[in-house]
Amino acid sequence: MLKRNKKGDGMRAFSLKMMGVMMVTLIQGCAVLHRVQYGEFDQPNNYVTKPFEIRLNQFGFDAARTKQTLDTFREKDEASGLLGLIALFQVGPRTGNPIYEEKWGHNILEVLHEKCPSGRFSGLMAARENREFQGVSGEMLTIKGFCLIPKKSNE
Amino acid sequence: MNKIIKTATNFALIFVATLFLMRCASVNNVSVTSIPAKRDNSFKVSVSRVVFLWFNFDNDYIDDLYEKIKNACPGMKATGILTKDEVYAYLVVFKRVVTATGYCVPSDIK
Is B49 within a domain? Predict the structure, then answer.
């Protein structure tokens, strides 16, 4: 009897550890890199290179994936049907999950000029990435680079 | 009978080993910046990450390419940069490689 209890405790501890690993995985979300592009990299002697980073985030939602996940946990109902209907509007070529902001990234040039008023950029890197959490995601546009500032003026 | 089982096991092992060794390559993205007329001093740098299944929690490895480009052209301008983003799939393991090739030219900013 005592032996069986010990075995049960061991199984419980193992299950808890596995749940912990799964929770960490779900909370972290998987990072996906869709595309990355590097620009020219200039290092003139009389300029200081100041690094900057711009990240524009949006909430992404994949109805088909959410429907699939929900269907594994419970019987199909009206919500499942509605998600199926929404999924029909999300077909077609895309990068990452669909978002609900059509002007996403439109102001990227303004943000770039705010970050670097001198207007001299170097080593611009543009990446399109996202973080997946079972049907919902964080969609990201990332721009990193360096602002060239003249050494004399120390702008 | 034992001989048949041994042969079948060997075949299965070779099959599994082949699956692991074989890799499928795919290109996600290619981009190029303006190519200079003077192309004497070229460079090629790359960064990579090995991912098991979908367990990838950040894309920070691409930041290292900056340092590599910077070191490839010290005090000069790196131009004509061809960026290639590739994935090599080995059954359940994926290797992501970002390669940048380009040319070092004297800086045109005075």
Answer: yes
